[in-house]
Each structure stands twice: as C-alpha cells, then as structure tokens.
Amino acid sequence: QVQLVESGGGLVQPGGSLRLSCAASGRDFSIYAMGWYRQAPGKERELVATVTSSGSTNYADSVKGRFTISRDNVKVYLQMNSLKPEDTAVYYCNAKGVKRYYGYFEVWGQGTPVTVSS
C-alpha cells in the first residue's frame, strides 16, 4: 500500500508563511501527479494546487500569487506566503500513480492543520 505523510502545519499570523511537506512511501509504484487540498470547518474539501510529472501546475484562484507547489520525485511541497485567515483549514496531500499488480491508484494523507490568526 502507498502511504502519504504530511507535515509543516501550525499556527501563523496573517501575512506570515508556512511550508507544507508530503512524502510517499511504499513498494513497486510510481507517481505521476501530486497535489494539495484543504477543508475548512463546515465546508467541502477543495483543490489548492497540483503538479504533474511533466511539471504542469494548477492553482485555485484564491491562492494564485501567494502559494507555490513543487515536487521532488515522491515528495511534494507547498510554500504558502501572505497567509490570510480564510486560508485556515486542514490541508491534505494527494497522489495519483500506478502500482504493480494493481494499476492506477489515488491516495490521501492524514491531513495537517493550518491556522492563520492574530
């Protein structure tokens, strides 16, 4: 089974920065896309940013110009700058890939909370 583990969340003041990290582990797999999603209390989970194996990136309109996603093989990072209170949410790492004897898969991390408050 492929597993994802996130880290880097915490409490930060408005205008501050955080860097989230996510690492995949397992056997006989390769990943072709990774991304970050977030879910605020009482709201639906939403896409934040994704990056493919070709390097293509996609960002939610609400984070463009403030967040940057990057990938290093089975690791993905989210640099968050100029944070706003509305960025407060649990952030989840996501990966899509293929695994031997199984085929395509999609896996989620456990989530890391981010709180932006004075």
Mean pLDDT: 96
**What sort of overall outline do the alpha carbons produce when their principal axes are compared?**
elongated
Could you give a short account of the major beta sheet?
A: 7 strands, mixed
End-to-end C-alpha gap: 40 Å
Estimated helix fraction: under 10%
Order of helix and strand elements from N to C terminus: EEEEEEEEEEE
Assign the structural class, choosing from mainly alpha, mainly beta, alpha/beta, alpha+beta, or little secondary structure: mainly beta
User: Regions with pLDDT < 50 over 5+ consecutive residues?
Assistant: none
Give me the count of strands. 11
Topology of this structure?
Layout: E1 3-7, E2 10-12, E3 18-25, E4 29-39, E5 46-52, E6 57-59, E7 67-72, E8 75-80, E9 89-99, E10 103-108, E11 112-116
Parallel strand pairs: 2-11
Antiparallel strand pairs: 1-3, 3-8, 4-5, 4-9, 5-6, 7-8, 9-10, 9-11
Supply the key terms.
single chain; 118 residues; mainly beta; seven-stranded mixed beta sheet; four-stranded antiparallel beta sheet; 11 strands
What does this structure look like?
Helices cover 0% and strands 60% of the residues. It has no helices and 11 strands. It has strands at residues 3-7, 10-12, 18-25, 29-39, 46-52, 57-59, 67-72, 75-80, 89-99, 103-108, 112-116. Strands 2, 4, 5, 6, 9, 10 and 11 form a 7-stranded mixed beta sheet that branches. A 4-stranded antiparallel beta sheet has the order 1-3-8-7, with no helix packed on it. Strand 4 and strand 5 form a beta hairpin. The termini are far apart.
